[in-house]
Structures are given as structure tokens and as C-alpha cells.
Design goal:
The structure is a single chain. By secondary structure, the protein is mostly helical. It folds into 2 domains: 185 residues, no CATH class; 105 residues, no CATH class. It is 76% helix and 4% strand. The protein is built from 15 helices and 2 strands. It has a two-stranded antiparallel sheet with strand order 1-2. Helix 2 runs antiparallel to helix 5, helix 8 runs antiparallel to helix 10 and helix 10 runs parallel beside helix 14.
């Protein structure tokens, strides 16, 4: 266990730009946009009359409605973090085993008292646990700072931020849901993670091309054959991948229905699962037949990755 943790720590320090700086930049963007909106409002309306009216109208809403708005805002502000983290993890895994071969350092790492299994496990844990944890900590700090700035603004127009929104917020519940959704999404994404590590273990160059081209070619050929048979383009590999991505348990989009709107898990264009943001709906995905198939695929990809890693040389 100590060796595994040491390897994960190594991954952090080798990729601290992606794992530490990137979420800080996203948090900085949120803060910068908030401050820009405040300065713009103050410039256009130096007496903040419009903002004061907005605070007054918000205070006239029932506490239940304000609590829902606050909760949706806390959950919704995670979307940009989620999308950015997805790109970070994608390219991290794509280069996780490729970089060792590219710079010819693979023999050095193999000489250390750490097996290839631990090496692969450390990279998988970095993608599944360390990256979400780093992004979650930054998200929490960002939301706390935004709450402080918002409270100061409300106080500046003689409002009471505690009764207006602070006392109605349950940030710990929102943070727990966000963290759980990211962990569930990491488990749901195991087939993709396994595939990226597999590509990273054998691609001679440009691993992005090797990662994207085979699924694309298979999808085109399968779609062409299916079209010749039925004149439709359904049930091919691209459709499976699309539905798999849309059904992710990560908080990703908004859902509108029956006069209500709120954030949603994945993209609510499929009826395979309920897209409401609840722990039950996250578990429903993880306990599904799709997840079982995904785990089998991930196990195959990772097993082949381990085999290739053991046979790899500096060339």
C-alpha cells in the first residue's frame, strides 16, 4: 500500500500543472466573471438600485424556492469543473504509459521496487480518485469565496445575506453529491480509462490518433453495413458510445420538464436511466447491466495493458 501511495504521489508531482493549476484556473475564471459582473453593475448603476431591487424581489420569494435555487446553483457551478476534469483525465491517461516509452525512462521505472501492476494501478487511481479530489477541493474553495463576495454585495445594499441565502444553503450536501457523482462517473468511465491506458501502452507515436481512429473506423464500417441492411444508422458502435456518454452519472446538463428545471446527470436525451441528481440514480447506473459489460471490457483492456507493459522495452 505504501508503494502504491508513493506512486500516486509521484503522479501528482509529475502532473501538478494539470491536477493543481488547472482547477485553480477554472476557479479563478469563476471569481473573475463574478467580479466583472459586479464592477459592470456598479459602473452602469453606481447606486446599485437594480441590484437592490433584485435582492428585494429575491427576499419576497418563499424560503423553499430560494433553497432550491441555491442548491441548483451549487450543483450547476460544478459543470465547468466536470468538463475540464474530463479533458485532463483523458490526456493524462493517454500519455500515462506512452511518455515513459517516449523519453526512454521505462527501464529506470522498471528498476524500482514497484511492479508493473502497481504502476498501472497508480495511474488508474490518479485518474479516478486524485484528480476528482483535487478538483473538488478547488470547487469548494471557489464556492466559499463566491459566497463571501456575494454576501458583501448584499450587505452593501442593506440586505441580509444570512436570511436571503446563507441559512438556506446546504453546501455539504451539494459537495457530497458532486463528489459522489465524480466518483461514480470515474467507475462508469472505466472502459474508456482501460482503453486509453491500453493505447498508451503500445502506441508508437501520436496516441490520440490510435485512441480515436479504431472506434471511428469501426463505427463507420458498422454504420455503412447496417445502413445497407435496414437504411437506418442505429445500434452501431458510435450510437453505443453516445448513449454511454449521455448516461454518465456526472452532473453535466440541465433537465426541463413539467414546469420545472434543474441540473441533471449526463444528458437527458435517453430513457435508459433517470437523470435527476440523486445518489439512488447514480447507484442505478453502477448496478446496471451496462456497467457489468463495461467492467468486463475494462478488465480485458487493463489485462492486455499489463501484458504489454511487462513486455515493453526502451524501444
Amino acid at each position: 500500500m505504501k508503494r502504491l501511495l508513493a506512486l500516486v504521489e509521484r503522479e501528482y508531482w509529475e502532473h501538478k500543472g494539470a491536477l493543481r493549476t488547472t482547477p485553480l484556473v477554472i476557479g479563478g475564471i469563476y471569481i473573475a466573471l463574478l467580479l466583472m459582473s459586479i464592477f459592470t453593475t456598479a459602473h452602469v448603476d453606481n447606486e446599485l438600485y437594480t441590484f437592490k431591487e433584485a435582492v428585494r424581489l429575491a427576499g419576497e420569494q418563499s424560503p423553499e424556492i430560494r433553497a432550491i435555487v441555491v442548491e441548483q446553483a451549487l450543483l450547476g457551478s460544478s459543470v465547468l469543473f466536470t468538463i475540464t476534469m474530463s479533458f485532463v483525465v483523458f490526456f493524462y491517461l493517454l500519455g500515462a504509459l506512452y511518455d515513459d516509452r517516449k523519453d526512454r525512462s521505462i527501464l529506470f521505472w522498471k528498476s524500482l521496487p514497484a511492479s508493473d501492476l502497481l504502476t498501472i494501478a497508480s495511474k488508474l487511481l490518479t485518474a479516478m480518485v486524485l484528480a476528482p479530489f483535487a478538483f473538488l477541493v478547488t470547487l469548494i474553495l471557489t464556492q466559499v469565496l463566491m459566497a463571501i463576495i456575494g454576501s458583501v454585495m448584499v450587505l452593501s445594499v442593506d440586505g441580509n445575506p444570512w436570511t436571503l441565502f446563507l441559512s438556506l444553503a446546504n453546501p455539504f450536501k451539494a459537495w457530497a453529491l458532486i463528489g459522489a457523482s465524480w466518483l461514480a462517473a470515474a467507475i462508469w468511465a472505466l472502459p474508456m480509462y482501460g482503453w486509453l491506458l491500453l493505447v498508451s501502452s503500445f502506441a508508437p507515436r501520436v496516441p490520440l490518433l490510435f485512441a480515436l481512429l479504431p472506434p471511428l473506423v469501426i463505427s463507420v464500417l458498422q454504420g455503412w453495413i447496417e445502413f445497407l441492411r435496414t437504411f437506418t444508422l442505429e445500434n452501431n458502435l458510435s450510437s453505443v458510445i453516445k448513449d454511454w456518454m449521455f448516461n454518465t452519472p456526472a452532473i453535466l446538463t440541465a433537465e426541463v420538464g413539467e414546469g420545472e428545471a434543474g441540473v441533471a446527470l449526463g444528458v437527458p436525451l435517453t430513457g435508459d436511466f433517470d437523470h435527476a441528481v440523486t445518489l439512488a440514480n447514480m447507484l442505478d447506473r453502477l448496478l446496471s447491466l451496462q456497467m457489468l459489460v463495461g467492467l468486463v471490457l475494462a478488465a480485458v483492456f487493463l489485462a492486455v495493458t499489463l501484458l504489454l507493459r511487462r513486455r515493453a522495452t526502451e524501444s
